[in-house]
Amino acid sequence: MSSNDYTTGELTAVGGATLAAISAFLPWITVSFGGVSGSQKGMDVAATLDGRIVLLLAILAVGVVVLREWERADAGAVAAFGLVTTGIGAMYLLDPAAAANASGSFGASLIQSGYGLYAAVVGGLVMLGGGAIGLAD
Description:
With about 140 residues, this protein is mainly alpha-helical. The chain has 6 helices and 3 strands, in the order αββααααβα.
């Protein structure tokens, strides 16, 4: 296989990883109160390193595809990276206040999920799908 002949699984995994990497720089949480609003990107979320973990997993997934021959173990690793990325995004979609470490119902009620979390979940699912396609080959 030449370096330009990428499989469907590899291309899918790289697409998902790219979206997941971009998601780390998009707003994960938004806060709105009295006409004033703000947001925190995945890389800026103070209470957790999860935005950085999503970025690292995305970089590793692309590295596996680009630097190695696509084998079953590589596809499994990429699928695992996608599963963890999806889990992180889904966790904060269900409880965005956890990303901001908000305490009390008043603070938590002002915090909403940002579109970066949706991008992380979709990117993780696409990475997972790319890995699954690679496992099926």
